[in-house]
Amino acid sequence: MAITIAIETPLQDDVRQLVSELNDHLLPLSPIEFQFKMTVEQMAGADTTLFVARNEAGEAVGCGALKVISAGEGEVKRMYTRPSVRGQRVGSALLEAITELARQKGIGHLLLETGTGDGMAEAHRLYTRSGFTPRGPFLDYPDSEWSAFFEKRLDQPAVA
What local confidence, expressed as pLDDT, does residue 29 receive? Predict the structure, then answer.
């Protein structure tokens, strides 16, 4: 299946639906107070760039965003792929696009927070395969059993 990845506004009906599916997917995985979601309106802010993956029919099948935290740091947010395309490297392609944009913006340090437990193992594998390593909490995220934190240095050469 051919997938295209492009920067798009989150304020489209099909992207709103995709984010709604992401929220529904996350809801049973952890208490609501440990779910740190951005709304589509927040994702439309100047500090955030949303990438949307579309299939050959033009349907939105995945998304992921880069939120600029500071001049040198960015956060990966709202990563999601529909179950129908999982295992087809859509998540990897989204993460590569986010990482490349971070490099273009001069961001040397990417961070992310994600859930733990059942249903999150695939996401953790995606992040570690993409060069992210576990770390402690950052920004104002609480240290809890419900969150896993990762980082990737873009301003250092890769270790062989």
Answer: 78
Reading phi first (left if > 0) and then psi (alpha if -120 to 50, else beta), residue 102 is in alpha
Model pLDDT for residues 18-42, shown as the tens digit of each residue: 999 988 888 777 877 878 888 999 9
Structure tokens at 159: 């270790």
Q: Strand 109-115 and strand 133-135: pairing?
A: unpaired
What pTM, to 2 d.p., does this model score? 0.91
Q: pLDDT tens digits, residue range 87-134?
A: 899 999 999 999 999 999 999 999 999 989 777 888 999 999 999 999
User: What Å distances lie between residue 49 and 33, 60, 68, CA to CA?
Assistant: 25, 16, 9
Within 8 A by CB and 6+ apart from 5, the residues are 51, 52, 53, 93, 94, 97
**Is the separation of the CB atoms in 49 and 7 below 8 Å?**
yes
Helix residue ranges, H only, the chain: 13-26, 40-43, 90-104, 121-129
> H or E segment at 157?
none
- φ, ψ (nearest 5 deg) of residue 64: -170, 150
| Residue-by-residue DSSP string for 139-154 | TT----TTEEEEEEES
